[in-house]
Amino acid sequence: MTFAATELATATNENLAHISNTLIYSSMAVYTLAFFAYIAEWLFGSRSKVARTAAALTAEGDAAATARGPAVTVKSAGGTAVLERPKVVVRSSAGSRDVPDGPGAHGGDEQGDLYGRIAVSLTVLAFLVELCGVVARAASVERAPWGNMYEFNITFSTVAVGVYLGLLALKKNVRWLGLFLTTTVLLDLGLAVTVLYTASDQLVPALHSYWLYIHVSTAILCGAVFYVGAVGTLLYLFKDSYENKVANGGKPGRFATSVLERLPASASLDKFSYRVNAAVFPLWTFTIIAGAIWAESAWGRYWGWDPKETWAFITWVAYACYLHARSTAGWKGRKAAYIALIAFGCWLFNYYGVNIFVGGKHSYAGV
Amino acid sequence: MSKTTTGTTADETPAAGHPGAADDDLGAAGSQLSTAPTETAVPGSFGGNRAPGLAGRLAWTGREIIGWVRWFWRQLTSMRVALLLLFLLSLGAIPGSLIPQNGSDALKVETFRQAHKTLAPIYDKLGLFHVYSSVWFSAIYILLFVSLIGCIVPRTWQFTGQLRSRPPGAPRRLTRLPAYATWRTAATPEEVREAALTVLKQRRFRAHVEGDAVAAEKGYLREAGNLVFHIALIVMLIAFAWGQLFKTEGNKLVVEGDGFTNTLTQYDDFKSGNLFNDDDLAPFSFNLKNFTATYERNGPNKGTARTFQAAIDYSVGADGKARHDVIKVNHPLEIGDAKVYLVSHGYAPTVTVRDGKGDVVYHQAVPLLPLDSNETSQGAIKVMDGYTDPQGKSEQLGFAAFFVPTFAGAGQGSMFSQFPGLDFPVLALGAYHGDLGVDAGVPQNVYQLDTKNPNLKPFKDAKGNIFKGRLLPGETMKLPNGAGSVTFDKDIKEWAGFQIVQQPGNGWALTGAVAAIVGLAGSLFIQRRRVWVRAVRGADGATVVEMAGLGRSESAKLPEEIGDLAALVHDKAPTQTDTAPEPDGESGSDARAVAEGAENN
Ligand code: HEM
């Protein structure tokens, strides 16, 4: 390449980097709008005053009500076939409460629902803008956008939102996640553009490997999914104690009632986070192994107890603990949930803590 | 541990190990849906009644001991202890990530020792400077793996038993199962069972007729996957341990133009596992043709390395053919089990030393160690023999060398490099003479002059200070009193640090890893479930079909699947509409379901 061509390329890259920054800021603005729309959804939703949990839990002994409780009819085929088809009666296993899922943040309120839909649309828009920002960044540095913590953060939040929108597209009941998600995404991006910002640049030689692409992209995806699982787990804990209180005749506060009534039942939240965590666990296992393969070609050993490796291992063992706890009697429910939160804590520490407090071979380009 | 404190709580009863099996009346139908070990209660005493006399006492003690050993083994291989050990393992791994470790950074450990005089001995006692090879950490993972083996063996056994036996017969009341469907049909019970059997077999269930019902099961791969996963963990651990025992790892610094032969004596430093044998070193040699580094010239990351590569010629065996290759950071040279990695680099300025008569006594490229990311480098030039001072006395010379590839300019700050590339190289030397002390038997750092050695005296300049000089390439510095001269030659070489690692067992570790992921995916994504279809003739002559499913874990998929299966069977044995009332709503069996549901809650 001639000198002039190099100059030109540098200029293009700088332009792209500027475009990327503008896009990231714009996406933050749209996320903020989405955030307010979700707030509006929750506010309008608070007008509905259906105490489903109490109705379901205090109906104990009332034969008619209990019979209605577990008997959920599943219509698996549309149209006329339903008439022809035998109905399937679903019954939850002994020991779990039969609480119906809440209606979602809008609480059945029409205006709330409208704001919820607006919020989701805005989230889609913000996601697309952010995605373009990440792609522009990648183009400006001519490599995958995860060479430093700034890039890691913007990619991470994009993927997390992508996971949420993906679940929505699959018609999963996850709209209740929206507010929590946009809040964290805004925090994450805020941190990225202020504290962690690193001007775009290329990689040090140790990072030139296609295993990097595999290892880091799966790590980011796992993190995003673990995060979604952790939100589910946290809400499960709240909802579960709420249900316990109601079942024991207690009277939770008005705010708690208003919010928690609208969330899915604790059993559903628990199941949701279990599925999410279980589904990515093999991918996380793969991530660690891919990392080991990369380390083997870069540093001559596949496992060296480097702090980052150690914490990835700790996270892995903690999630294995959680999965074991789920299949062990006496450890289901709240105890397992605590383990899941600890496991996610380990992941977070590995992501931020190790880079900032510990160091080791995995810190590049400043942070 | 006292016997009485190991209490049994309600959820430790065996049945609670299986969701859905908590309903006692499911009986055998819910059992063995997995091979997870069940928690067992401890009796008050294993010995039972003690017969009078010595024989009785001995027999009792024997029963007691065997009982306790067995109890201990059961505890160790229980899920609860596995959970505890897993938890301990992750907890135990933490200190090693926060405290400097001998294995990865011995220098940091030394600094830590200096800084924490009281803490360091305590850490030493606890093995906290080498956590991952400490007694307690090993104890945790060895116990975990004993537990794992103790868990896998019976589970594999149990699983093969399950594979050979048929799915258990239908429980008495199918309405109690998590997913249930029923309808009435004009087809005979035999026809319905036949139809159900066909449908289930088509869907690759293992199915057979038992009594008035068809029993079917699917998803055995879940269990197989789970076992494969746990076995793969053991394979990985063994491969890792094997690798550690036979591993060799050594470093060699090679200046451009020089070479290396893979024998013990050639290494700068060398570590090997306990079972390694010298003959195991792969026979090869290589020459470093040249080393290339490029650096970012502009922008905020100016000076960051962009490429490192070492062009080499190598040959395998005693007199193999010479081949060419380029070793890069992520691209080691592989020869058999051995890999040659490029791990470090630096400069090696060529220096010529002459004695007072002008005879060359030293001419070499001297590798220097970088001190910072801009390659400010330091080292020592040691002229061991061949030098005689102007008085004709045989002496040794030593120079403390300081080198910067890019000098800031005279009078511009200190002697620190501004850029890692060779833009403005300057070599600074401090001169000493006397006895270098290298023959004293104490191993010496080749990159350092032992200036504390009383026999090594500095040359003095006119003011009585240590004689020093700064040289540009090609310049010569004259030593005082006609003691000779030093020339900084124009030919500045680079050196590359290679790590040569030979570790067997990598293939096994990788195989284990792949098997672990495949097994895990099977274990987590495959549902193991049972389906029963019962057909009996009702009082009114129509056939009542009942269909129900039970899974290892509750899943939304199970009711869907039952719905699909029911629809398929229903096609062959459709609802009898003319005589009987609507199948849903208030039909006889459905009403029973409602009533039972109510009584159970
Ligand atoms: C080396 C540490 C271990 C790791 C990383 C590990 C990991 C896992 C994982 C990820 C699962 C899948 C969870 C699921 O299917 O829901 C699992 C299942 C299981 N593990 Fe382990 N495990 C370990 C040691 C053990 C030990 C020592 C035992 C026996 C005491 C054991 C017994 C089981 C059983 C019975 C299951 C199946 C549970 C079920 O059917 O759902 N594991 N393990």
Automatic annotation (TrEMBL), chain A:
TM stretches of this protein: 23-44, 118-140, 152-170, 177-198, 210-238, 276-295, 310-325, 337-358
PANTHER family in UniProt: CYTOCHROME B_B6 PROTEIN-RELATED, HEME EXPORTER PROTEIN C
GO MF term list: heme binding
UniProtKB keywords: Cytochrome c-type biogenesis, Membrane, Transmembrane, Transmembrane helix
Domain of life, source organism: Bacteria
InterPro entries: Cyt_c_assembly, Cyt_c_biogenesis_CcsA, Cyt_c_biogenesis_CcsA/CcmC
A family per Pfam: Cytochrom_C_asm
Domain Cytochrome c assembly protein: 146-357
GO cellular component: a single term: plasma membrane
Lineage: Bacteria, Bacillati, Actinomycetota, Actinomycetes, Kitasatosporales
Protein's name in the database: C-type cytochrome biogenesis protein CcsB
TrEMBL record, chain B:
InterPro entries in the record: Cyt_c_bgen_Ccs1/CcsB/ResB (IPR023494), ResB-like_domain (IPR007816)
Alphabetized UniProt keyword annotations: Cytochrome c-type biogenesis, Membrane, Transmembrane, Transmembrane helix
Main location: membrane
Keyword Transmembrane included in the entry's annotation: yes
Sequence intervals crossing the membrane: 81-99, 135-157, 227-246, 507-526
Chain positions covered by the region annotation Disordered: 1-48, 569-601
All residue ranges annotated as the ResB-like domain in the record: 79-562
Annotated membrane topology: Multi-pass membrane protein
Pfam families cross-referenced by the UniProt entry: ResB (PF05140)
GO cellular component entries: membrane
Subcellular compartments: Membrane
UniProt-listed GO biological process terms: cytochrome complex assembly
Low complexity: bias regions: 1-20
Keyword Zinc-finger: no
Protein name: Cytochrome c biosynthesis protein
Species for this entry: Streptomyces spiralis
Native organism taxonomy: Bacteria, Bacillati, Actinomycetota, Actinomycetes, Kitasatosporales
